[in-house]
Known about the structure:
- This protein has a domain at 2-66 and 151-224: Gyrase A, domain 2, CATH 3.30.1360.170.
- It is 51% helix and 13% strand.
- It is built from 12 helices and 4 strands, in the order E-H-H-H-E-H-E-H-H-H-E-H-H-H-H-H.
- The chain has helices at 12-22, 29-35, 38-50, 71-78, 105-108, 111-133, 138-141, 159-169, 176-192, 194-197, 203-207, 215-224, and strands spanning 2-8, 61-70, 84-87, 150-158.
- The longest helix is centred in the middle third of the chain and has 23 residues, at 111-133.
- The chain starts with a strand and ends in a 6-residue tail after the last helix.
Amino acid sequence: MQVILLSNTANAERIVASCGRLFNSDRTISNIFDELSEEKIKKVISELIHSENYSVLDHVTYTFSIEEISEIVLKELALCEYLALSKREEKYISIDSENDFVISERIKEDEKLLELYQDFVEKSFDLYNTFIRLGLPREDAMYVLPSSKSENIVITMTASQLFKFFSDKCCKKAGKEIRKLAWQIFRECVKISPAIFEHAGPACFLKRKCPYGDFKCFSKMKKVWTEEEK
């Protein structure tokens, strides 16, 4: 899996802070924008987020290229109606080898399961190629391929939508692959807009309690928050 930040709104933190200051100011947005100090930007953003005023976060967007995710995760992302998602049409996708499939980490850890999985993928891939040779269009031949087929996509979200995404998908209750994806996107966001995204994360850290009532998991997540996701 590879996550690349393609683009983001320039001066994102300054824009968010300026919009926040506009609520209780009689000055123009351009004056506020030009005069905010870096220290003030951090303070205003922190106050906005802790008061759950997320509407100002809709003014800035982030676009990512995501490579080598499974079709399983693609379908889960497609259910997130708040994000924009682009991918190639099936008829233009060429499956060249058994390497064009994503393997679950848990399957990788078990030699027997890995052997069974690789055998299944090989047979599916062989049947796919047979259908292609017999003249079946790619989009129809793909019906024999497993949903672990690798996909490359582009997604765009506002900062507010990313907060929701991290709240749901950084959680230990989310599937392992999409959780890994969420944490990678999270780290990219923290690099580019730390004043905004240092306040983001799984729901337990936004609400200071586990939404599922799993206190054992919550205590573990306190440690995760200060380290890299394991």
